[in-house]
Amino acid sequence: MTRSLDPYGAIDRQRQPEGYVGHLEARGRTPAQTRLRRRFLRFARIRRGQCVLEIGSGTGIVTRDAARLVGSRGQVVGVDPSQIMTRAARRLARRAGFGPRLVHAVGDGARLRFSPDRFDCVFAVTVLLHVRNSETILREMVHVTRTIMDGVVSRMYPDPFSGRTLYGRLVRLGLRDVRLAVEVFQDTKLEPYTHAMLSRRAENAVKLGLAAPRAAARWLAAVERLAAIGQFAFTLNYYAARGVKP
Question: For residue 55, what are the β-bridge partners?
Fold first, then answer.
């Protein structure tokens, strides 16, 4: 069996594994890497009060940035298969003064020991290229990610994607000249109708076991905060289709 040339696939088995700790930290301090992480975390929508998980957290470079974003009411957990990386991550987190809101543990991303819907956001940075079981890891990441809107919709309605699939269904039924029209309802003020609907989504997420009561309350509170500072946007698509029977 050919030995892998990728050292990051098994850090603890390298001749001088501690050297990779210094390498990663040095790279993480460069201005270019700092900008990349900032853009990535903004893209991932990390918010205050969230519970966040990173798979393959290494020395904790990204988890420390995420911990600053979630603030004192949030929590960030980093999981990595390397004991050496995890020890370094814990040491650096203590040195930075994060305390219990930033936790690092040795673990396998393909076998996460967390309950379903445990985290608001789960991500893996430059990890999938180093593993053979990336599909399993992605499945685990989805499994432990909390859902409110999509999860409730999929459990409440018999056919939640009826509008999106309407065009194809009419074509398969043999209609000619099929046309699709989409109208978009949007709300940037969190009107009473929208607020009531989102409140019901949060309540149903708890009833369906998709989120804990406190998590659902945090989700709704985050929506209300966005509306208060003028950053809220909500849309609903309405689909119409027509065709000619031959």
Answer: 79, 124
Q: What is the mean predicted confidence (pLDDT) over 150-154?
A: 71
Q: Domains, the chain, ranges and CATH?
A: 7-146 (3.40.50.150), 150-244 (no CATH)
Burial 75-106 (b: 16+ CB within 10 A, else e): bbbbbbbbebbbebbbebbeeeebeebbbbee
CB-based contacts of 205-213 (< 8 A; 24+ apart in sequence): 205/147, 205/148, 205/151, 205/152, 208/151, 208/152, 208/155, 210/117, 210/146, 210/147, 210/148, 210/151, 210/152, 210/155, 211/117, 211/146, 211/147, 211/148, 211/151
What pLDDT, in 10s, does the model give residues 10-20? 887 888 888 88
